[in-house]
Amino acid sequence: MTTLSSYLDTLTTHAATNRNIGQNRLVGRTTQRFLLFGADALIIAAALLVGVFARGFVPLDGGAVGLPAIATVAVGALWLTALMGFGTYQLRHLRAGTTEYKRVLMASFIVAGATAIVSYLAKAEFPRGLYVLSFGLGTIGLVASRFVRRKSMAAIHRQGALMTPIVVAGDSGHVDEIAKVLRRETWLGYKVVGAVTRYRGETTPNGLPILGQVTDTVDVIKNHDIATVIFAEGSFQSPADFRRMAWELEEHEIHMIVVPALTDISAQRLDVRPVAGLPLVDVARPQAIAAARWIKRTWDAAGAAVLLLLASPVMALVALAIKIEDGGPVLFRQTRVGLRGEVFQCLKFRSMVLDAEARLAELAAANEGSGPLFKMTQDPRITNVGRFIRRFSLDELPQLWNALRGDMSLVGPRPALPSEVAQYDSDTRRRLDVRPGLTGLWQVSGRSNLSWDDTVRLDLYYVDNWSLIQDVQILFRTARAIVGSSGAY
Fold first, then answer.
1. pTM for the full model?
2. In 3D, which of 332, 377, 339, 376 has the Cα closest to residue 357?
């Protein structure tokens, strides 16, 4: 009898603990959603008030037409309802990706359209100035607030604060790969506490503590206050095991993330279709062929022409400074490998001494790069002017002429030397399927601070997942990277 009583007490305590953990998680997530909702409500209210008070001063307005206060409140309430209906407060979309922004825009456009249609059908006078100001300022404010929140949280996470503790489950090799990425991309806000595997052990090959087996996941969560579990390949032997694990974690309000075997594929190429209970993933073809077609070439030629015109005053000053410093040639021409292995003369402003190529061999021992690349933080061959123009990537401005000619693209993999290409393996040669670029993912992701493997990985990702929108994003990110001058030497 005593044993049965003790067993029942243990079960009651265990259930209460589980409820407390789940309730704490629920309260935390509810608080986050409430704060997001409150911020949106303030932005919408401010946009509507600005429209109401400013409409008499806006020329778009057809005149001093009154709008009942109840209509203004109704539009605001409808807007917030649409934001909730479109799932803009789902926490899983708050860290990265464009889903959050897309849903805010869709909700705002639908409310704006519905307001216009209702006003027309009801023959109600809705001042155009109020309409444009309210929905224009409100939509911009909603998107901007999310952008600012993301950037602020990313900056906080990079300092190691407000991190979300997680464990990674799966085979040791896959666990280490995921942990490596999350440790590098600290802005995501995930702190890897340890691993759970299907096998016993102390640590993974890369030294990550093994906190237990996959079957012990719930106990590991309770003991280490885990908020998120990432399941990698090798976590489960069968779909039934995964389903049971999901049931176990449900009551704890634990965020589950599944990393598929697919890697380096953009979301635009993936389409998940549940069929007969199976989450089938359609993967669109790689985009290397599309990246070499006329659309990108037209974009490159037009962009290069405009940028050459805008940069010409700066280029003239750089050329004058180089000539004054040592009287040598302004331009440096170097043979590089382009599309399909074709070689071309890549143009740069000369940033090194005249005999830089001859002195390369004596500096080989000081090479700080990996793979076929030569990198040296304090290269003695760089001139004073060269150091300045390299810091802000001004030495690469003449490559706009290469882009105009068709040798290069505005965005693409870095142009490689023939000696580097000679060391490429079959996978790395994939970089030659598109034109090399003045800038690329390698530049906006760390420039010379990247390892050779990371550079190749980013270039291959670009080749396989090319899109014109991504090119525009990279160009904007390049401007920010140049101003920050991180990784440039």
1. 0.66
2. 332
